[in-house]
């Protein structure tokens, strides 16, 4: 019986569907126990991970029977694609399955940061009444959303924004401005610099590559409107955290929401700690009860299909 190792959390129903046909090892702590992970994959034909487990050259060499890697998400920076390709190992991301969850996170945090009122909870609870100070919030309707990266998540975010009356603009280095998708999604293509100058809310949806590492640095932040909002649900290395903290502390940015960081968990003493108008969450924008079911079901089905296709014909 073919063996599947699941190294991070996955929906139980999806796991059960695999257990009916394959020998499944599921241990959500394997991603954090490197030696145990390497031992577990020695005879595995398939490996399913999220973003913690490093599927690098060492693991690929150790997993001598590995045929497929399922990624419970869309980012592939924790997977050595070159090493997998050299071995003929298929890598399957859950493209689109968590797009709605991320899009709702973006819109929700944009609403909170623009309105500003929710940061007054402690004061109101303590008997204060900062009505004048908290009555200067802004509405989402009529604002411009700039989407950096126009894949499935960026497009889902643009659709939600349009439904709430926002105007949407976008930049994607791999989607030419003449592509029909811009018109279909009611989004105007822009250069990155023009998008940063024009948008009231900037949302990042690009993978972490050599081209995008440090993409949003001090220079790019200086192009943004003084009251603009920056939201990063992509990868931490895309935003220069020191530059962002400096901009927030100086009041040169209206606010920011970060779900991802250069180092995760965020280390003590980070320049982001204590910054004003900043929402920090632990890499959960794409993780909801519903999205976990969608992502897990999709990967279970695709991994099973890939293993079936690799079986020797009778």
What would you say this structure looks like, in words?
By secondary structure, this protein is α/β, with parallel strands linked by helices. It folds into 2 domains: 3-97 and 290-310, Rossmann fold; 99-280, NAD(P)-binding Rossmann-like Domain (Rossmann fold, 3-Layer(aba) Sandwich), CATH 3.40.50. The protein is 37% helix and 15% strand. It contains 13 helices and 12 strands. The strands form 2 sheets. Strands 8-7-6-9-10-11-12 form a 7-stranded parallel sheet, with helices on both faces. Strands 2-1-3-4-5 form a 5-stranded parallel sheet, sandwiched between helices. Helix 12 (241-249) links the parallel strand 10 and strand 11 (255-258). Helix 5 crosses helix 8. The two termini are 15 Å apart.
Query: By CATH's scheme, which homologous superfamily of the largest domain applies?
Result: NAD(P)-binding Rossmann-like Domain
Q: In CATH terms, what is the fold-level topology of the largest domain? A: Rossmann fold
- The level-1 CATH class of the largest domain: Alpha Beta
Structural class: alpha/beta
Low-confidence stretches: none
Question: Total domains, how many?
Answer: 2
Radius of gyration computed on alpha carbons: 21 Å
Q: Main β-sheet: number of strands, strand sense, barrel status?
A: 7 strands, parallel
Name the strands of the widest sheet in spatial order.
8-7-6-9-10-11-12
Mean pLDDT over all positions: 96
């Amino acid at each position: 019986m073919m063996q599947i190792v699941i190294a991070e959390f996955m929906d139980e129903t999806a796991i059960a569907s695999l257990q009916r046909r394959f020998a499944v090892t599921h241990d959500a702590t394997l991603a954090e126990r490197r030696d145990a992970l390497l031992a577990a994959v020695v005879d595995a034909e398939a490996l399913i991970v999220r973003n913690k487990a490093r599927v690098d050259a060492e693991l690929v060499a150790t997993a001598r029977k590995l045929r497929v890697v399922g990624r419970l998400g869309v980012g592939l920076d924790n997977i050595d694609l070159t090493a997998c390709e050299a071995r003929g190992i298929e890598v399957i991301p859950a493209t689109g399955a968590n797009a709605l969850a991320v899009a709702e996170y973006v819109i929700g945090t944009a609403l909170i940061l623009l309105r500003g009122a929710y940061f007054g909870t402690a004061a109101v609870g303590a008997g204060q009444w900062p009505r004048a100070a908290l009555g200067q919030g802004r509405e989402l309707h009529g604002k411009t959303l700039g989407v950096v990266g126009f894949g499935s998540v960026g497009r889902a975010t643009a659709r939600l924004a349009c439904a709430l009356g926002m105007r949407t603009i976008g930049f994607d280095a791999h989607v030419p401005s003449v592509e029909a998708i811009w018109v279909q999604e009611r989004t105007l293509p822009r250069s990155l610099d023009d998008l940063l100058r024009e948008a009231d809310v900037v949302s990042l949806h690009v993978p972490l590559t050599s081209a995008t590492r440090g993409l949003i640095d001090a220079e790019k932040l200086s192009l943004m409107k003084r009251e603009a909002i920056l939201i990063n649900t992509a990868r931490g290395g895309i935003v220069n955290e020191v530059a962002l903290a400096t901009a927030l502390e100086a009041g040169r940015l209206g606010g920011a929401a970060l779900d991802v960081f250069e180092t995760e968990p965020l280390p003590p003493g980070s320049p982001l700690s204590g910054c004003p108008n900043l929402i920090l969450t632990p890499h959960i924008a794409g993780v909801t009860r519903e999205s976990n079911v969608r992502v897990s079901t999709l990967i279970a089905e695709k991994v099973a299909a890939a293993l079936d296709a690799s079986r020797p014909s009778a």
